[in-house]
Design goal:
The chain is an alpha/beta fold and 285 residues long. It has 2 domains: 202 residues, 2-enoyl-CoA Hydratase, Chain A, domain 1 (Alpha-Beta Complex); 72 residues. Helices cover 48% and strands 15% of the residues. The chain is built from 10 helices and 10 strands. Strand 2, helix 1 and strand 3 form a beta-alpha-beta unit. Helix 1 packs parallel to helix 3, helix 2 crosses helix 3 and helix 5 packs antiparallel against helix 6. The N and C termini lie far apart (44 Å). GO terms for molecular function: lyase activity.
């Protein structure tokens, strides 16, 4: 029998060149999420969110899976046996870190290296960008064992897929590979497994060159305006821009100066040179 991991060992991370590589770390369970893993993931997110040596967070999995969803034994059977209070607590712990990841201070990337099932759609949607291996498998298999895709998975399918694909995916319980996941919109791109990390590193490196205050405002805006009318979104974005300017107007001024006065860069071809910007402690990220 496989020895149960200590709570602190259910998530691993390392930082390289301002990229935090965070891993689901239960490969012997295909990285299924358990109450222990959910609690530890929140601690890791807390640890990394405001570190100056972290500019982008990548979420991936140890071994052959990203995450195969919720651990049916620990998350459902054992928790339910403890009563409603334990069920509600475990829900708060899982939904809590997914919500935290959705509104994270730094850009986030899902690097789906293998299986992504059921509850795994929660953190998949929470990441700003997503890339997967062609060999990865995505599935909403809940219908096969008699329940609906809970934990927000049904909502996520509707958010990311068109109506017909969402309905087919949820009702049929069939897996799709990485290429199909990319075609359907579950991820941005699908690549051969041996090229996946290089592509994610490339994308993360581009993000590191952007203004961090503008990145945070942009990612929040994309998530917020989807549920707004046009007029409400227009008003929200005006206020969001004003708030960003008040927080880091030096960055905005520097970008405009390099474009208009120095003519040293073109916005359509890359980011302005942040190294020339006056920095303040509050603008660091």
């Amino acid at each position: 029998m496989t020895k149960d991991r200590a709570e602190a060992d259910t998530v691993a991370y390392e930082i390289e060149n301002r990229i935090a590589w965070v891993k689901f770390n239960r490969p012997e369970k295909r990285n299924c999420m358990s109450p222990k893993l959910n609690r530890q993931m929140m601690r890791v997110l807390d640890e990394l969110e405001f570190r100056d040596d972290v500019g982008v967070l990548v979420l991936t999995g140890e071994g052959s899976a990203w995450t195969a969803g919720m651990d049916l034994k620990e998350y459902f059977r054992e928790t339910e046996a403890e009563g409603l209070g334990a069920v509600r607590r475990s829900q708060r712990e899982s939904y809590g870190w997914w919500r935290r990841l959705r509104w994270y201070q730094k850009p986030t990337i899902a690097m789906v290296n293998g299986w992504c099932f059921g509850g795994g759609y929660g953190p998949l949607f929470s990441c700003d960008l997503a890339f997967c291996a062609d060999e990865a498998q995505f599935g909403l298999s809940e219908i096969n064992w008699g329940i609906l895709p809970g934990g927000g998975a049904t909502k996520i399918a509707v958010e990311l897929l068109n109506f017909r694909n969402a309905m087919y995916h949820a009702m049929m319980g069939e897996n799709v590979d990485g290429k199909t996941a990319a075609q359907w919109g579950l991820v941005n791109e699908s690549l051969p497994a041996d090229k996946l990390k290089a592509r994610v590193t490339e994308v993360a490196s581009v993000l590191l060159e952007k203004n961090p205050v503008a990145l945070k405002a942009t990612k929040d805006a994309i998530r917020r305006v989807g549920e707004m009318t046009y007029d409400n979104a227009e008003d929200y974005l005006v206020r969001a821009q004003e708030a960003a300017n008040s927080f880091d107007n030096d960055g905005r001024k520097e970008g405009i100066k390099q474009f208009i006065d120095e003519k040293s860069y073109k916005p359509g071809l890359g980011a302005y040179d942040k190294s020339k910007q006056k920095t303040t402690k509050k603008a660091k990220a």
